[in-house]
């Protein structure tokens, strides 16, 4: 593991690190905020998964999360959204290939050798953090924005016991029924839609739900509402009697101005579960 | 108008009053909490509509609303749920007739002469309060529980501009598709289901929505979930991009212990809109 940068931030450290990933077969980069309290003992961790076109950097610089994480004494990790680099498959479209890993393990060519973001986020990166930082891996929460909200919700529901809480900002909520999803799931997983179900938050919610609290924020003026399909998730949460809150936020769009506006609520929501 | 009782309560007055109603052709009784501030000038008002089998008294004594209304300086009115008395039609079932007015104007015998709770709550009682108490009728909010949540939501969406905010505790959310609804709407309004649409919160939400904020609380362990159908309302709110919050509250049932637990949130939610 290599230190790319470390900056003091709200009394803690905002670091960027890179490492050779077994899961993706590439060098991967991630951001990690550690609060001051990590000097005294292991701290809980909140995962923040980013959306289409993002790297590890977007939320780390624009979401304002460190202020609240510092206040709550929890770490936040910002993984990248896909493998990258020469020799890694890509597509001209912004929503497929590099920057658009969709948090799945690809089974189809040309994606299969590198696009294993599920294993990377669920297994490899947590193990790496546990070995190298003073983090309590028994206290994990997960959130994300857009494609990252999809990732957070699908990881949380597929790995019961792993995360104590899950939240999302304007998640891609029903990708098996959306142009943000059908194209990518078909490309990465093939045309057998039965393999897609574990990567659709609304289907998972209807089937399994989540064994902990859920918080969803969606901007009412989001320019991508037709692609995100929040109503499918809202319906599934209510029908499942899921412990959770779904908030439609008047006037907000899909941007990081929206994410930043409600970051305090999300960090505090996770902190309550992580410190319980 | 006759004063039945007045009790000092959180610095204000909890009153019970009765009057001869034109809308129902009966004597009607209501509860009214007035905060201390009503002595200095007109105060906003929050309507609380009650559920099946309730009178004006249940919420007035069990919901703990006065504490928060006093803190916020707003009045709360607790109407009865139907006309009552000898000569008023009734049914052996708890969910039809007296105690079960469903906030409609009946068009069918034997209900039509007295069961006009829509006109009573929407028109006659507000006019009476405006004449007799120091209340600012330009600042109204409305809430309710179960059948009363149904009443609050349907009144609010059918009378745009009347209420600044609407909330509900475990409302009967989709009565045209529920045994809490089909029986009563058929009895009061007849079998032509087109006349039912304005009395179904989920259909109204899909069609009109509400021009203001909405807050819904639903207990996840509510024993009547199959009758309440919260998922229909959650879906409609999200699909409409309604400014609002839908909360599924883990561990709570349909009782007033649930209502009381979240009353502070609802009063504060309305107060914010009413004092804006």
From TrEMBL, chains A, B:
Active site: 146 (charge relay system), 222 (charge relay system), 254 (charge relay system)
One Pfam short name: Esterase
GO molecular function: carboxylic ester hydrolase activity; S-formylglutathione hydrolase activity
SUPFAM superfamilies named in the record: alpha/beta-Hydrolases (SSF53474)
Catalytic activity, as annotated: S-formylglutathione + H2O = formate + glutathione + H(+)
UniProt keyword annotations, A-Z: Hydrolase, Serine esterase
GO annotations of cellular component type: cytosol
Any Gene Ontology biological process: formaldehyde catabolic process
InterPro entries assigned to the protein according to its UniProt record, in alphabetical order: AB_hydrolase_fold (IPR029058), Esterase-like (IPR000801), S-formylglutathione_hydrol (IPR014186)
Enzyme Commission number, as recorded: 3.1.2.12
Known function: Serine hydrolase involved in the detoxification of formaldehyde.
Family: Belongs to the esterase D family.
Protein name, per record: S-formylglutathione hydrolase
Record organism: Halocynthiibacter styelae
Gene, per the UniProt record: fghA
């Amino acid at each position: 593991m290599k230190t790319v940068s470390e900056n003091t931030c709200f009394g803690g450290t905002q670091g960027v690190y890179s490492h050779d990933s077994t899961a993706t077969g590439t060098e991967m980069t991630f951001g990690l905020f550690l609060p001051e309290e990590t000097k005294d003992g292991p701290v809980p961790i909140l995962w923040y998964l980013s959306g289409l076109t993002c790297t590890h950097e977007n939320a780390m610089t624009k979401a304002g999360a460190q202020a609240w994480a510092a206040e709550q004494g929890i770490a936040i990790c910002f993984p990248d959204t896909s493998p990258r680099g020469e020799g890694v498959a890509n597509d001209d479209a912004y929503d497929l290939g590099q920057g658009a890993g969709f948090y799945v393990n690809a089974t189809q060519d040309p994606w299969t050798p590198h696009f294993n973001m599920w294993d990377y986020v669920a297994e490899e990166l947590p193990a790496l953090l546990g070995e190298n930082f003073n983090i309590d891996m028994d206290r994990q929460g997960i959130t994300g924005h857009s494609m990252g909200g999809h990732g957070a919700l699908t990881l949380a529901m597929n790995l019961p016991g792993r995360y104590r809480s899950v939240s999302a900002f304007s998640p891609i909520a029903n990708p098996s029924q959306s142009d943000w999803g059908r194209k990518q799931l078909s490309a990465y997983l093939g045309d057998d839609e039965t393999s897609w179900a574990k990567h659709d938050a609304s289907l998972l919610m209807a089937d399994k739900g989540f064994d902990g609290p859920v918080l969803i924020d969606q901007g009412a003026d989001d320019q991508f509402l037709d692609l995100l399909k929040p109503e499918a998730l809202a319906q599934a949460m209510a029908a499942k009697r899921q412990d959770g809150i779904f908030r439609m936020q008047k006037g907000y769009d899909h941007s990081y101005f929206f994410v930043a506006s409600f970051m305090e609520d999300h960090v505090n929501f996770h902190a309550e579960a992580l410190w319980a």
